Amino acid sequence: MKLLTVIGARPQFIKAATVSRALAAHHPDSREILVHTGQHYDANMSDVFFDELDIPRPGHHLGIGGGSHGQNTGRMLEKLDALMVQEKPDWVLVYGDTDSTLAGALAAAKLHIPVAHVEAGLRSFNRRMPEEINRVLTDHVADLLFAPTQLALRNLQKEGIADSKIHVVGDVMYDAALYYRPLARKPAWFDALKVGEFALCTIHRAENTDDPERMRGILAGLAESPLPVVLPLHPRTRKQLAQFHLGLPDTVRAVDPVGYLEMVWLESHCRLVVTDSGGVQKEAYFHGKPCVTLRDETEWVELVEVGANVLVGTDEARIQNALASMRPCVGDQQHLYGQGDSAQRLLDQLIRGASH
């Protein structure tokens, strides 16, 4: 089997690495071609990033990024079309909900190359989010849809997608959490804080960072935190805070962005997580930490249903109440997202499909 994998952001590299490792371990006769669109330029994606995380380097780098959603998707389509004609893969594999995801799926579908989508079936039901558009369109052109949960399966069934295309395999992010947890690294600056006695916060979504009123609500809520708040400060968030003349409250300790292994350590050793990130919501659950989500909706609805996650938007009072009342998660963190063998399960389906 010849597999062409399209990725464009650091979280997608981490997810794809779990599948690459499983492919090398269990299907050595298969070949994978990794294509980095360049959608998210990340200065942390140096040689150290690939070496420390045991991630294969991309075979192709398209160098596309920095434009609008339409510009990026169009330029990616053009370059991916030519690359797929050249490589002639048996499958094109895409992850998640970025412009790279949609471009990879569309390019393959128009060339009649089978498409497989990892993290299929997620829905926030907010069509104003570009990620939601990317998810829905990718699911409807995909030939194999790898759903992480039963809820994702039901979402796809409601949209009329054939059951024969859908496979509930669990979540490759849980595979990654298990793999990287023993490798996690304490940040050098952490010694002034106490393990288990801080809240970990991330803020990066444009709907929050680009709206001064939403940012004021978040900061006012964090100001009343009963715990010190560690905030790895995203460059866009730092820039917008300065533009809006907003200062951080005394409860918040801003630090430079952290690497993935440091982030895993912080998630594992905090009391709770406060975030507007989709991936961090799940990682908090994997590490048994309650999550306060600074959004009005989430694609990870099951976390809210089991009480591991609470949606507070940017309302000051709701943020304060959640910070004071959230308790550690109880129960089996594996239950919702599989047993840590999602990569192997989805590869079994791809191999089976390639042989037909």
From TrEMBL:
CDD domains: GTB_UDP-GlcNAc_2-Epimerase. The keyword GTP-binding does not apply. Residues 27-350 form the UDP-N-acetylglucosamine 2-epimerase domain. SUPFAM superfamilies: UDP-Glycosyltransferase/glycogen phosphorylase (SSF53756). Gene3D superfamilies: Glycogen Phosphorylase B. Keywords: Isomerase. This is UDP-N-acetylglucosamine 2-epimerase (Non-hydrolyzing). The gene is wecB.
